[in-house]
Amino acid sequence: TQQPFCYPCPYQSAALTVASLQLSDCQCLPGWYGPHGNDCTLCPLGGSCPGGSEVVPAFGYWGNPKYLASFFPCSPKEACPGNYTCAANAFQRLCSECPLDTFISSGVCKECPSRAATSAALAFVAVGITVTVAAIGKTRSLWGVKFIVSFTSILATMSSPGYAIPWPYFFSTFLASMGPFLDVGMPFSWATKCLYETDVSLLSKLILLSLVPPVGAGCIVLYFVFWSTCRFLSGKKIGNQKEFMKSRCIRNGLLFIFFSVSPVCYKVASLFHCVQLDFGIYYLAVDPTVRCDTGEYITYRNGGVFLLVLYGFCVPLCMLFWLVTNQKHFNDERFKMRYGFLYEDYKQKFFFWETIEMVRKLFFTASMAILYGIDEST
Question: Which residue has the higher pLDDT, 128 or 171?
Fold first, then answer.
């Protein structure tokens, strides 16, 4: 009798049994997916493919069950355990929302502390930032601090949700840990929600974010006024007390603005990145409750453009103008104490280079969000 001829299964698939007689017995291998008996497709980024036709979101990714093999990174990753589920109590697209009286932390919706505890935590954060900037302001050369801030800014940008760069696991984990250091609006966002027991709209977050540099600089000034007053009342005079206090206030207030511009622009740039979470419908990646084809989004986008121009270009230009018009005072001790951190780390003929660095960091930070979002939001 004639022996049956065995045909190989399609690409990257195998039969379930040794004596299979039908093409439909061929199923995709783990790491691949596709209909039984057909060629298999490589598991997409963000997907988990145990074999066969099944493909579900992997840990750290969200997907719409209606649209197979389209997955989007969650921030934080812990908010999306995978398999079309969200962490405890989280809901909405990208598992980004928590019920009232809760706030999201490490991907889990946690119960808000009491109002007194929330107020104390917010005050602690504000005082900690103020004291840190004041301590940094005592250092004459700040090149080391500037380098760390620039390095952190670049790393946090590279780890932004929506930019699905397949870094090795260890490096991607390290990058993700950098993000919170630049999330300047995060403490105020959850504190506002817990204090007023209501959801904080994206517009409110944008307003809070825009106030961070001037309010922070104001807190620095108040800190030094209080500190100088206490020293004066205790009899610990410092030469020309009034002049010393004025110089420290100017230097440290400008330092706060200088260091806060980069993280503010980093957050604002995310307003330009939209992703398709439903068929033909795009949503704002940073707030998936906002559709990118509505007047609401246009308002946010215009506000983002204003803040980018204000903090990304106007602030460096004002600093440049001040340096250009005061070159004759560069060797004056009082001027160096107030503004020296802007030019002392460079040769005299390149005194303007710090302002170029500020614009360069803005361009790098904002361009990734804008370039990734252009095709998707138009």
Answer: 128
